[in-house]
Amino acid sequence: MTVTVSPARPEDYPRWRELFAGYAEFYEVELTEADVERAWSWIHDPDRSTRCLIARTEDGTPVGLAHYRAEDSPLSGTRGFLDDLFVDPAHRGGGVVDALLDELRRVAVAQGWPSVRWRTAEDNYRARAAYDRHAVRTPFLTYAMDAR
């Protein structure tokens, strides 16, 4: 399957929404309408760093997404951070993840980022196999402190 990747466009909204909902469902997160609208608005807001890459099939159908942003680090400067990556289950195994990560690497080079980091669930073995082709696993753990 031939896959092309480009930034999200306004006309991608209906399919992006389906893909984003699939991502949330995979991680058992209930999305509200406000969550969806917030994410979409961030992607297109020039004052925010969140952006979205969309992977498309030959006929232009969106089948995958990658939400990423700049992340400032006092020790290493600005680098990239991949928040979300999701591929329609019907299109997994067809090179969509590789196409998204290859394009994200090109974005990182263009932005001057020395690296792109991301997290995934420890038991997300299929995704981890793909990630292992593109990156090195770091020894850092993620913590979440409740601030409510």
Automatic annotation (TrEMBL):
Residues 3-148 form the N-acetyltransferase domain. InterPro entries: Acyl_CoA_acyltransferase (IPR016181), Diverse_Substrate_AcTransf (IPR051016), GNAT_dom (IPR000182). One of its GO terms (molecular function) is N-acetyltransferase activity. One of its GO terms (cellular component) is ribosome. It comes from the Bacteria. Keywords: Acyltransferase, Ribonucleoprotein, Ribosomal protein, Transferase. SUPFAM superfamilies: Acyl-CoA N-acyltransferases (Nat) (SSF55729). Pfam families: Acetyltransf_1. This is Ribosomal protein S18 acetylase RimI-like enzyme. It comes from Allostreptomyces psammosilenae. The lineage of its organism: Bacteria, Bacillati, Actinomycetota, Actinomycetes, Kitasatosporales.
